[in-house]
Amino acid sequence: MNRSLLRVRQITQEFWFIPAVMTLLSLLLAEAGIKAEESYGIPKGLYFVYAGGETGSRSLLSAIAGSSIGVAGTVFSITIAALSYAAGSMGPRLLNNFTRDRGNQLTLGTFISTFAFALYTLRAVTGSGDVVFVPHYNVTFALVAAIACIGMLVYYLAHITGAINMTHVVNLLRDDLRDSLMKATQQAEPDDGFAVAPPPAFWVNGETLHAPSSGYLQLMDNDLLLRRADEAGVTLLLHVRPGDYVFPNSMIAVGVPHLPEGVMDALSLGNRRTVGQDLEYSVRQLAEVAARALSPGVNDPVTAIDVIDRFGDALCSLQDRRWPDGVYYSDQQLRLVVPVTDFSGLTNSMFAMIRQYGKGSPSVVVRLLEVFRTTASCLNDPERREVIRRHAELVREDGLANIENSGDRADVEDRYRKVLDVLAEGQVAEIRQASKQTVAQGGRVS
Q1: Bridge partners of 215?
Q2: What is the DSSP string of 221-251?
Q3: What is residue 23's predicted lDDT score, i.e. its pLDDT?
Q4: H or E segment to which residue 252 belongs
Q5: Has this prediction a pTM greater than 0.70?
């Protein structure tokens, strides 16, 4: 994705975009209806078309315009107040979900476009002197739009009730995380190899690039960076990755022997983090929900357990996927090195905050270890399994240090032992698989 596509996506996701488009279309439709009736009149046989006079059409259009904008203002004002209250326990992400939801945007657009259509049509109704004109097509359509508003209101009330449900919010965040994981990783192949970046000494004499402004790195166009480095015949190293906060005048890139032109054209800075390339942002949003749930003011371990389950879901989906190495070649020449998120960093973002806030809750500690056990059985990579072992040890240590009840401590030890058993079974399976491969290749196993 390049910078232009990012901006287009951000604009189209704004809460006002769909209502604005629908309002513009309604005004164009109103004008088209008026012109059509002025030019061709109403053919005989169209019995469904409004057949009232000037006074009735004025009253009808006035009622539709006033009621549509009044209901929209009241309903959405109350909704925003309810969402603001609920965001105290769910986090500000709830408000983002509300504004990004297409159903909410379509509902607001239906009410506002109906108001605009009726108001624009009302100005065309004339009844002074000998000139009488009633836009029958438009009045008929305004009646249909009013009925649509009633249907959208019923839909909206049911939809928003489910939207502020905690499980619904957690599932939405899970879907964002899963999509980001699938985009950030690729299918692993048996002959996949990892390219190794040059040592730090390679970059010592390179030309450095300092940030001209500040903000979150929302987008890094790797294709453009690779093309610019290849055209200049240089090797480029980035020190920042999507999601990092870039400080003004901080070093963000090094070029050897010099910097290519237009490096900043491939980097988009903004005032907030965005879902997409920023994988850890998707993780942090879920972790924030769990951290708020475990705060003393909320004390909702069930929600934290829901989040832990979603994290286990995400990790198990990485069973047959590999992380990119961040090293790019062009015509067998090293051109670009960028930092990437790895499995260890991902799991740290997932579980560190939950472990710190939930270390005194036996149910949270036990569920963490149970998820580690399941995750360990899903993962085949020894390095990833070792990361799971390290987190299990940290959870056990914090849990035993903060849980006083002997029965709960025994449960923690039991779940931790099961994690170790699964990890040990995985090591045995790896040894057996390696032995089979050696024998198949004609080797000898002692």
Answers
A1: 246
A2: -HHHHHHHHHHHT-EEEES--TTPEEPTT-E
A3: 95
A4: strand 251-256
A5: yes
Domain range list for the chain:
3-164, 204-440
Give 129: exposed, middle or buried? Use CB within 10 Å, 0-12, 13-18, 19+: exposed
Q: Which two tokens stand for residue 149?
A: 């508003």
Q: What is the pLDDT of residue 429?
A: 54
Considering 17-26, 183-192, 378-387, the range whose residues carry the highest mean pLDDT is 17-26
Q: From CA 260, how far away is CA 236, in angstroms rounded?
A: 8
288 neighbors 93 (Cβ within 8 angstroms)? yes
Strands (E), 257-396: 267-270, 321-322, 327-330, 333-337
Phi-psi category of residue 442: left, alpha or beta, with phi > 0 → left and psi -120 to 50 → alpha = left
Q: How confident is the model at residue 207 (pLDDT cuts 50, 70, 90)?
A: very high
Give the list of residues 6+ apart from residue 75 with CB closer than 8 angstroms, or none. Answer: 153, 156, 157
Q: Are 139 and 61 in contact (CB under 8 A)?
A: yes
Question: Identity (one letter) of the amino acid at 290?
Answer: A
Instruction: Give the number of residues written for the chain.
Output: 446
The pLDDT tens digits for 22-74 are: 999 999 999 999 998 888 877 665 656 777 788 888 999 999 999 999 999 88
In 3-state terms, what secondary structure has residue 422? helix
**Residue 372, SS3 per DSSP:** helix
| Residues 410, 400: Cα–Cα separation, whole Å | 9
3-state secondary structure (DSSP) of residue 123: coil
CB 62 within 8 A of CB 122: yes
Mean pLDDT of the chain: 85
- List the alpha helices (DSSP H) in 193-300: 222-232, 279-293
Q: What is the pLDDT of residues 345-385, one digit of tens each?
A: 889 999 999 999 999 899 999 999 999 999 999 988 888 99
DSSP-derived pairing of the beta strands 215-220 and 186-187? unpaired
Per-residue burial over 60-97, b = 16 or more CB atoms within 10 Å of its CB, e = otherwise: bbeebbebbbebbeebbeebeeebeebbebbbebbbbb
Helix (H, G, I), strand (E, B) or coil at 91: coil
